[in-house]
Amino acid sequence: MKFPVQLVCVTCVVIATSLAEFPPKYVEDPLSELPSGHLKAFGYHRLPDGPVAEEKGFLHPKIFWGKYVSIHKPMVFRQAISDSPAILKWTDGYLVETFGDLDLILEVKREDRTKQPQRTNISSFIERYIKEDIYAVTVLPDPMRAEVQVPSCLLCGTFRDFMHETNFWMSSGGTRSVIHYDADENLHCIINGSKDFMMMHNKFRKYLPTFQKKQFTGSGFSSLDPDSVDLLKYPDVAKVQWTYTTLDPGDCIYIPSEYLHQVRSHKRTISATMLFTTDTSKSFQETNCEDASFNYTPLSAIDVHWTYKKGDKTIDMGYINVELLRQNLVDIFHMLGKGFLTVDDFVHVYSLASKDEEDEQSLQKAKELFTKVFEVDIDGKITEEQIKNLPRENLKTLGRGIDAPHGPVLDEEDDDDLDTSHGKDEL
To answer: CB-based burial of residue 151 (10 Å sphere; 0-12 exposed, 13-18 middle, 19+ buried)?
Structure first.
């Protein structure tokens, strides 16, 4: 039994080789002995299957579930967040003046894989991001959530209840991702700039070279160079079908969990992503849908599981949905079949779920976590009812105990730019 950590592939971004056209145009040369698209960018290997399906206007969460989420079908939701104040406000100057003292995680583009995530504040990042090889991908700070609209398709039921993280992405442009997939259901929304997306069903993963995935992570990426696809070395890539779209400010794309995609940006871009999961029964629950007004709603009005505010010691990015964590505990409880959960049971499960070595120190850590999460003595016996009634903050303590933070931990004596040695070499 393990706890599947929910992660976004943040180090899947590299410096882009600009495409002259999008979508790429497939041209077959009957006189050439080489496969069409050989040593060209991904997408020149075959014709696309068309653009990604689109919606515009009001989209009820139940329709969103039935037409797209339940069948893992990507969808572009045009102008889904077009009323967001951020679209007009978030210039570099405004971000510095209004949110400059808030921390974020920045990444170094993947040419240097020895670099670890850094933590800095928005002012420092904006001072550096145009000249340096860096981009921001971080938990959207609480004050900034007030200026981003929630798409109508997330405003009630399971999607609203199970939104567990929102992210802020910012770069100077000229980046592209490798072909990758993420663990979570994801709405990726553009605030400034534009992005090109190529989408591929997960069934085509077998035709792509080496998918790298670390244990206990929910994301993975291919070793294929999407700027120069060697179709002699990897002839099966020609079988990979794809669809495409370009997103502009206000647009969002629904990226199903584990759905393959590749992304390019060409100029300064800012995105907000909303990570959510279906509920633990893999169905849509219409909680509060009958009473929902579907009026303009900012992200600050949503009870997001993992958030960041100024002064937080960690930026809680990439952790599991806390309600899924609760369900994992209930499943373990039933699997044991004893009617209660003891510290020894917990220590055993912790040793499987965490990345810690099984030594005396990690065992002691697990025991302390048991007493802290369940608020009992070391000899306490935990019932199913106690698990079901655990406050979310207790579950977050467990999540942090299982997995290390992504990026440096803030100490009182730390300066704005923290030592990257605290960073987590994970994604």
So the answer is: buried
Instruction: Report the run of H or E that residue 61 belongs to, with start and end.
Output: helix 61-67
Tokens 């400059």 -> residue: 100
Q: pLDDT (tens digit, 9 = 90+) per residue, 31-67?
A: 889 999 999 999 999 999 999 999 999 999 999 999 9
Q: Which residues pair with 198 in a beta bridge?
A: 244, 262
**Parallel, antiparallel or unpaired: strands 103-108 and 118-121:** antiparallel
b/e map 224-262, b = 16+ CB within 10 Å: bbbbebebeebeebeebebbbbbbebbbbbbbbbbbbbb
Report which secondary-structure segment, H or E, holds 105. strand 103-108
Task: Categorize the per-residue pLDDT at 10 as very low, low, confident or very high, splitting at 50, 70 and 90.
Answer: low
Residue 140, judged by CB atoms within 10 A of its CB (0-12, 13-18, 19+), counts as buried
63-92 confidence digits (pLDDT tens): 999 999 999 999 999 999 999 999 999 999
Query: Are 261 and 197 within 8 A, CB to CB?
Result: yes
| CA dist., res. 164 & res. 261, Å (int) | 22
**Residues 426, 99, 272, 289: is their CA dihedral positive or negative?**
positive
Please report which confidence band the pLDDT of residue 110 belongs to, taking 50, 70 and 90 as the band edges. Answer: low
One-letter amino acid for residue 92 of the chain: D
C-alpha distances in angstroms, 105 versus 9, 11, 117, 177, 408? 14, 12, 6, 18, 8
- C-alpha separations of 284 from 280, 322, 327 in Å: 10, 18, 16
Segment 233-256 shows an average pLDDT of 98
Give the Cα separation of 248 and 82 in Å (integer).
10
Strand 75-78 relative to strand 54-56, pairing: parallel
Domains of the chain: 54-315 (2.60.120.650), 322-407 (1.10.238)
**pTM summary value:** 0.87
Among 236, 238, 178, 230, CA closest to 38: 230
